[in-house]
Structure formats: C-alpha cells, structure tokens
Give the backbone structure.
Amino acid sequence: MNRLPVHDDEMKERLVRQYTGGRTASLRKMFEAEYKTMCDALDGSLKDPKSGQRELLRKRRSQALHVIQRLGVDTTDWPRINAFCRDKRIAGAEFYDLGPEELAALTVKLRGIERRGGLNPQRPEPRLSSRPETAKEQVIYMPLEGGPIC
C-alpha cells in the first residue's frame, strides 16, 4: 500500500471494501486470501506495462540465438550475427531490429534450415568404383614412329 502513488486512508478503505466484497473497511479484518489477491492486483498495476513485451522479446531473441548457434554461427560475435540476419534469405534486417513476431518467424525458418542439413549441407560421399583397388596405375610412353628408343 505504501508504494502506491496516492496513499491516503480513504483510498485504502475503498480498496479493502472492494477486495472484501464490502464486508469490511479494515485492513486488519481482511482474510489472508483477500489480502493476497489485493496485493497481487496492486503489484500488477505498479509494474511497467511494457515489461511483459520486453520479457517476450528477450525470450524470442534467446530462442533465435540458440538455433543460430546450432547452425554454426558464432553467437558471441554481434557483427557476425547481424551480417547473418541481414541476408535477405534469412531476415533482411539487423538482429536487434527484429520484433517478437519477426523473431518467431526467423526461429521457424532457421529450424527448417537445420532440419534440411544446416547452412552448408554435407555432400554425399562419391561412390567408389566396383572394381577392387589395385596398385597405382602406371603410364608407359612408347613412341609409335620409328624414332630412337632409349
């Protein structure tokens, strides 16, 4: 109650009546559950309304960075992350310019790239010929015309 921007007895009584259903105006006569509900509501009203949006942005950035790291990009090097995200095929913008929805779409796209083998998919090994490997082949040069043979 003391952290509220306006703190007077009349406001306190109105809040107590509101959360007790009009049963009492005394803070001391409130049940514990009523008091807890009132405190939770007041804490929620004192929080920054953008904090939930910031938390969502932080979570989405973390998810995207985790997948970028699994793809082999050094996530401790911000210029490299931004260069990776600037590619039109990836996001087309700097990493820090991406909002929560764009980060979610980026994460889905990166997971698809990961499922398909990553950024530089390994090419299959060339098939070896069916004949067994023998000693190295030698080339012998033999002149066909009647020149001198050494």
